């Protein structure tokens, strides 16, 4: 998995839960290899001074898909299945099932928001291609801004839920678990959950890109998504780039400036549309992997 240089420092840090050093299953080696790639991806976000791009997040989603393929192999290995059946009524097994629900919920919200923003971007692209009247353009800009506001609100809720989930995972212990295969699986699932949370957080932060009208003091969790260069020029991701273009276009319309050039706005919308398309595909794939893992667990635990 290639690591995109287009990334940013995020407030949310991925904290590793170390896997056992003595690996018994070949599947563990595969899981660790994919986890290592995603940790490198995470480190690139934490160390970079450039806002996270959609392509960077898509890279993380692709990595998660590969990781969950390896987890599926681990879950379906005979020794893991035996441990799950023996402890099907235990708290650790219940933890694994509950954790999958939380990730599914967050991923589903991410998919819905992606679809909503994609539709609004397409509406704007359509009206600009048709060279619709100023009132039509204004209406579509207003619709886009309303959807963006809703996306920010929903993203903030999901970020809080994911942070709570992360804290719960970090506070749990496996010191009293005697069955190695079970403790190994739970360690893996916790580690996988943490890195999944990290990727989903980066997506919700990407959606929460503040526009130029936002006061710096009110950026809260998302203030690191805008980086200011020494000369005062702001570096923004695809959403921020579109926001700037739309505000300029809206200002020209309001001031009755003739012969408005919409090419810059169209190019930026095209770039955002491409990003949203890739993210939607990645989120759909992740959602299917999460469901498959949960179904596998439930099938093994079924009496």
UniProtKB/TrEMBL annotation:
What biological process terms from GO does the record include?
root development; shoot system development
Any Pfam family the entry gives = BPS1
Entry superkingdom: Eukaryota
Which InterPro entries does this one have?
BPS1_pln
Protein name according to UniProt: DUF241 domain protein
Organism for this UniProt entry: Rhododendron griersonianum
Upper lineage:
Eukaryota, Viridiplantae, Streptophyta, Embryophyta, Tracheophyta
């Amino acid at each position: 998995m290639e690591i995109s240089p287009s990334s940013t420092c995020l407030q949310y840090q991925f904290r590793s839960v170390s896997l056992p050093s003595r690996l018994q299953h070949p599947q563990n080696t595969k899981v660790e290899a994919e986890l290592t790639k995603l940790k490198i991806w995470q480190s690139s976000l934490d160390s970079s001074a450039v806002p996270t791009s959609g392509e960077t997040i898509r890279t993380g989603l692709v990595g998660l898909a590969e990781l969950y393929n390896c987890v599926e192999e681990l879950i379906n290995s005979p020794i893991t299945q035996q441990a799950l059946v023996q402890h099907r009524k235990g708290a650790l097994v219940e933890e694994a099932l509950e954790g999958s629900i939380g990730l599914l919920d967050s991923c589903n919200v991410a998919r819905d928001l992606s679809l909503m923003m994609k539709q609004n971007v397409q509406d704007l692209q359509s009206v600009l291609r048709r060279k619709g009247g100023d009132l039509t353009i204004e209406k579509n800009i207003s619709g886009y801004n309303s959807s963006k506001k809703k996306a920010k609100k929903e993203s903030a809720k999901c970020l809080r839920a994911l942070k709570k989930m992360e804290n719960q995972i970090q506070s749990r212990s496996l010191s009293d678990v005697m069955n190695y295969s079970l403790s190994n699986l739970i360690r893996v699932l916790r580690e996988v959950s943490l890195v999944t949370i990290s990727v989903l957080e980066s997506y919700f932060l990407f959606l929460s890109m503040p526009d130029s009208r936002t006061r710096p003091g009110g950026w809260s969790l998302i203030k690191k998504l805008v980086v200011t260069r020494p000369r005062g020029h702001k570096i923004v991701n695809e959403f921020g780039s579109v926001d700037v273009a739309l505000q300029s276009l809206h200002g020209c319309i309001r001031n009755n400036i003739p012969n408005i050039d919409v090419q810059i706005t169209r190019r930026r919308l095209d770039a955002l549309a491409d990003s949203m398309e890739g993210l939607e595909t990645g989120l759909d794939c992740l959602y299917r992997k999460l469901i498959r893992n949960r179904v596998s667990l439930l099938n093994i635990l079924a009496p």
